[in-house]
Amino acid sequence: MSPPSPASSAKKTYDRRFGRSPELIAIAPGRVNLIGDHVDYAGGLVMPMAIDCCTAVAVGRDPEATDEPSVIVAADLDVECKIDLGEIQSPRQPGTPDAFLNYVTGPLEQIRKAGVSLPRMDLVIASSVPMGGGLSSSAALEIAVLLAVRTLLERKTSPLELALEAQRAEHEQAGTPCGIMDMYVSAAARPGHACMIDCMTNELRQVRMPPEDEAVVMVTDTRTRHELNDGAYATRREQCEEAARMLGVDLLGQASIAQVHEAGLPGTIDSRARHVVEEIARVLDFAGALERGDLETAGDTMFSSHDSLRDLYEVSCPELDLLVETARDHRGRGVYGSRMTGGGFGGCTVTLCRKEFVDELETAFRTAFQDAFGHEPESFITSAGAGAHVM
Ligand code: GLA
Question: Whose CA is nearest to atom 12 of ligand 1?
Answer without folding.
Answer: 37
